[in-house]
Amino acid sequence: MDLWIIWLIVIIALSFLEVATVNLVSIWFIASALVSLILSFFELSFLIQFAVFVLLGVFLMITTKPILQKWLKPKDIKTNFDRIIGMTGLVTEEITKNAIGEIKVDGKRWSAISTDKISAGENVIVESIDGVKCKVKKIEKRESE
Question: Is the whole model's pTM more than 0.85, yes or no?
């Protein structure tokens, strides 16, 4: 059997593997197998062809994978709830250290947690969002008020 047929089979198998995984697993070895396929027409030894296949595949993977992953990585999409972080809300149900309360912020009601006890009617600042709960902090009144 001619060596070019082996490289053609390797290219086809790796192509099917790449399509099946969609994780950029074998794309570099497809390229290196193409180079080895071309080398097989110059009747070089299989050992040289295989060395080119492995070394070029590893080299391409190391040098281009980070670039491709950065380019293909989906952008982080901010959702609407991110915008309430830093906003002031009104406590509608008391929040204690061990019980979830409720706040109203930006016209919507949210479950809220805090490390402090906060009574209904007090204002809070949304520090972060943990799942479906807002982590809030009581707004300290100034002494001039």
Answer: no
